[in-house]
Amino acid sequence: MSRVSTQLKDLKVGDRIWTEVKVDRDDVADLNSQSNTAKAIKNGIPVKRICVVLVPGHTSVEVTYFATFNRSDTLPKRLSKDLWYPFKPATKEGKLDPLPGLHDKEDENKAQWVSLRTRHKVTKNPVDKMEPDVPVKSVNLIKEKMR
Description:
Elements: E1 3-6, E2 16-21, H1 36-42, E3 47-55, E4 61-67, E5 84-87, E6 112-115, E7 120-122, E8 127-130, H2 136-145
């Protein structure tokens, strides 16, 4: 997965970035997990995540993050179907039809979900931008469903 250091001011809606965000404890698939990432999340420590830019800006951007849940095609049972938007090949489990999959070599056949819980403000500059972008149409659907 190639990453290119990019200034916040150069990001646009739909860009995917690799950055730290504070993941909500309720978004941990397995609260008994002892992984370093799960421990950090449960302790309120920001972790690196692939995020999508929802709102660009010069000194900050608003994002939400992706999760793969150990490459499962289904959303873990303890998570709310109303707080995750699936990307193909993830299955439809709630009211939302899966968005078109992202076609990059590493993630092409990996089910992914984007969190609808919170918009995160990123101010760290620069960030690592990744390909491919999420289509603006998909981002608009995500934003419509966010709380």
